[in-house]
């Protein structure tokens, strides 16, 4: 990165491959890259940018000499930038391979310059660097920051930093300051190191207690209510830091504290459709996205149902998707549930004025019902509704909370597939299988118990008792990728025969194995490329499945992006690229592209991996998500699509081979249909369900649920009622498209009874 001569003109467009450099080699280059002026002539900016980009993807390691050069580069850049990236400087010390060099001189220059020029946008790094220059400079920095920090909780955090050792201060700078464009990702285990500092733990509880007390004071009228003004911006950030520390440590006092804090900041003490602190509510949820606990998820869901602000429930729903995805990978706490007074079998009973109220846990939710002398009643009895309003409201709220817990549990269990979560048999038996709330969910799932080394026995507790095993014997969820096809078929038959509905698709789960084409491409898959999808629908599915992606649109840089999800406890990452294809009013169409996988390296950065190296279960689960995105959002599933060239894609999809999800749907139909009253009018023919009505015969596509009518293959557009007959047919798993297909089949099997003129007109036109 020396200045090239005239003969070195080609260096300006040279993009070197730095992947072979060690992390320490990269750490040697980063100070040199920073020292290169942004507007310096005759400098190979491509080399500088390549170094910075590589550093952002990895975790550079800095020798003491490299740390010293980094600080010299920071000082040298002050004249040109009028600013210095102190987070980058503090980060070199976090990643230093030896004793820190003496940095008092450059640290003093940096701190004094930034104070003089009012550049206080990296306060924690400024404190860390100021501390290296001596107590006098540190106190000067603290005094200046104390003048601009707003709110007592934020000032308490400032006092905490002053009590810490220099090495501890740089850790806070790594975590708490806004990261610059050139900064690498947060170094591994930094949160754990901060959470082990006694002073930080003490502050975390004090800050959260103070926040809860203030929320109560607002609700009680001791502090005047102003919408979203209960906490300053600095305090919101400080409480967020405290919440992350406490959540990471999984402190036992946290559930009770969040039960006080969240309701207090989520609903105005008046009838206003506002809240005391929307900012703090969202900050707590962001903390839960990093270090979730089931109790906090339940608390968030509870306030989500009570918030009166129109936009808050919708935003919380989006944020909860990431929380649930993160909870699934935090297996040590994910499956913890309170019993809430429920008895064996998942039933809570309460006597109310001669009637018995029952909150009953099923496989998917909790329901409130009433009995009189053992006889089930419809609805709430009038005397109970009149004389026990508060108790009924409390029980309804309890049912909602338990239902929210069951959703969280199911998603945590399903998310455990990619981490291959294993539980000790004794804990699984006592804390899950026999748990009054978790038990009904756990019993409907297939489990494997290792009864001898390498010998895994599969059991469905709803149909058979688990085998005897030692308390420390491993237990894991069964996945079809680990089983023979005949075993998978047998479990599917049993579920349908016993009418056992699983909380998520397990026995009928799709399997995605590496194809010969993917073996040839080696590092990427085109299996789901070249599809046209409704973009907003796919974007919503990204959020629902825990993927992150920037929003596409007709603006600079909005033409393409990658949806990303980390899997296997952060060891693997999948990327699904897509591009903007059309942006005209309601038709926001995206085109799909390749899928690639990355593996996390020893330094914490990502490296693109060969598909053959991806664990089969991780590969299958990732590709299952992408199949869902394409299958649900594809314009081929839109029966009204008639838009020019895209219509050709729509027609091609009608005749395309079945994908894994559609084959699974066909498998389920083959088992379910014979048990329905329209069985004699239905037949499965390849990719279609053929339904014989009185007026015509129909072919329903098993992928898109679109319909054509024989004999001329005219398309039939139907928007079925939400509670059509197909929705009442027993299904062993939830599948919206399968329910839609069955609903259409029930309707068309009795087409002579259809009263909807828009449908009848289409049917009779060519009959």
UniProtKB/TrEMBL annotation:
Residues 663-763 form the DUF7737 domain. Signal peptide: none annotated. Residues 374-547 form the DUF4132 domain. Pfam families: DUF4132, DUF7737. InterPro entries: DUF4132 (IPR025406), DUF7737 (IPR056639). This is DUF4132 domain-containing protein. It comes from Actinomadura citrea. The lineage of its organism: Bacteria, Bacillati, Actinomycetota, Actinomycetes, Streptosporangiales.
């Amino acid at each position: 990165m020396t200045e090239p001569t005239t003969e070195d003109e080609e260096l300006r467009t040279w993009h070197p491959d730095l992947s072979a450099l060690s992390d320490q080699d990269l750490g040697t280059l980063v100070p040199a890259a920073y020292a290169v002026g942004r507007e310096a002539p005759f400098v190979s900016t491509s080399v500088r940018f390549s170094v910075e980009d590589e550093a952002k993807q990895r975790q550079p390691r800095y020798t003491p000499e490299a740390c010293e050069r980094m600080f010299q580069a920071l000082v040298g850049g002050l004249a040109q930038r009028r600013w210095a990236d102190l987070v980058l400087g503090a980060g070199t010390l976090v990643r230093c391979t030896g004793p820190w060099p003496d940095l008092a001189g450059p640290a003093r220059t940096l701190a004094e310059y930034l104070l003089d020029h009012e550049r206080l946008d990296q306060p924690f790094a400024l404190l860390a660097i100021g501390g290296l220059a001596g107590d006098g400079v540190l106190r000067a920095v603290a005094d200046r920051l104390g003048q601009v920090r707003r709110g007592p909780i934020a000032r308490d955090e400032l006092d905490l930093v002053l009590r810490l050792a220099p090495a501890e201060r740089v850790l806070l700078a790594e975590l708490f300051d806004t990261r610059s464009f050139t900064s690498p990702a947060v170094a591994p285990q930094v949160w754990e190191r901060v959470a082990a500092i006694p002073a930080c733990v003490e502050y975390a509880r004090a800050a959260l207690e103070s926040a809860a007390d203030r929320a109560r004071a607002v609700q009680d009228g001791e502090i005047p209510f102003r919408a979203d003004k209960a906490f300053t911006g600095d305090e919101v950030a400080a409480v967020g830091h405290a919440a992350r520390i406490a959540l990471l440590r999984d402190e036992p006092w946290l559930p009770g504290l969040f039960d006080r804090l969240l309701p207090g900041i989520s609903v105005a003490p008046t009838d206003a459709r506002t809240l005391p602190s929307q900012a703090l509510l969202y900050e707590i949820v962001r903390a839960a996205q990093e270090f979730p606990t089931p109790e906090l998820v339940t608390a968030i869901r509870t306030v989500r149902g009570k918030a009166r602000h129109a936009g808050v429930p919708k935003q919380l729903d989006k944020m909860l998707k990431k929380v649930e995805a993160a909870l699934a990978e935090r297996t040590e706490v994910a499956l913890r549930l309170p019993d809430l007074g429920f008895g064996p079998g998942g039933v809570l009973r309460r006597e109310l004025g001669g009637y018995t109220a029952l909150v009953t846990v099923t496989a998917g939710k909790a329901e409130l019902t009433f009995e009189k002398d053992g006889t089930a009643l419809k609805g709430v009895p009038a005397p109970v509704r009149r004389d026990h309003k508060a108790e009924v409201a409390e029980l309804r709220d309890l049912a909602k909370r338990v239902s929210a817990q069951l959703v969280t549990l199911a998603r945590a269990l399903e998310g455990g597939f990619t981490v291959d979560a294993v539980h000790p048999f004794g804990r699984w038996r006592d804390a899950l299988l026999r748990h009054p709330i978790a038990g009904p969910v756990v019993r409907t799932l297939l489990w494997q118990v290792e009864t001898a080394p390498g010998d895994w026995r599969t059991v469905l507790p709803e149909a058979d008792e688990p085998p005897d095993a030692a308390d420390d014997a491993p237990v894991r969820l069964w996945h079809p990728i680990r089983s023979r096809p005949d075993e998978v078929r047998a479990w599917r038959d049993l579920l349908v025969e016993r009418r056992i509905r699983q909380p998520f698709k397990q026995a009928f789960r799709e399997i995605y194995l590496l194809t010969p084409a993917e073996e040839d491409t080696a590092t990427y898959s085109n299996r789901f490329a070249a599809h046209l999808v409704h973009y907003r629908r796919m974007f919503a599915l990204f959020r629902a499945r825990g993927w992150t992606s920037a929003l596409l649109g007709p603006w600079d840089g909005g033409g393409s992006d990658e949806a990303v999800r980390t899997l296997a406890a952060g060891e693997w990452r999948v990327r699904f690229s897509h591009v903007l294809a059309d942006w005209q009013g309601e038709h926001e169409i995206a085109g799909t592209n390749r899928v690639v996988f990355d593996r996390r390296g020893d330094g914490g950065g990502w490296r693109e991996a060969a598909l053959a190296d991806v664990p089969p279960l991780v590969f299958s689960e990732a590709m299952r998500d992408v199949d869902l995105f394409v299958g649900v959002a594809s314009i081929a599933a839109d029966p009204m699509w008639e838009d020019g060239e895209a219509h050709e894609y729509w027609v091609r999809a009608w005749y395309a081979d079945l994908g894994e999800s559609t084959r699974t749907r066909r498998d389920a139909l083959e088992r379910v249909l014979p048990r329905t009253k329209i069985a004699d009018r239905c037949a499965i023919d390849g990719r279609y369900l053929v339904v014989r009505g009185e007026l015509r015969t129909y072919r329903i596509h098993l992928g898109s649920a679109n319909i054509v009518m024989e004999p001329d293959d005219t398309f039939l557009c139907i928007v079925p009622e939400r509670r059509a007959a197909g929705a009442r047919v027993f299904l062993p798993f939830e599948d919206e498209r399968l329910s839609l297909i069955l609903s259409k089949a029930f309707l068309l099997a009795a087409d002579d009874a259809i009263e909807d003129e828009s449908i009848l007109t289409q049917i009779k036109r060519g009959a």
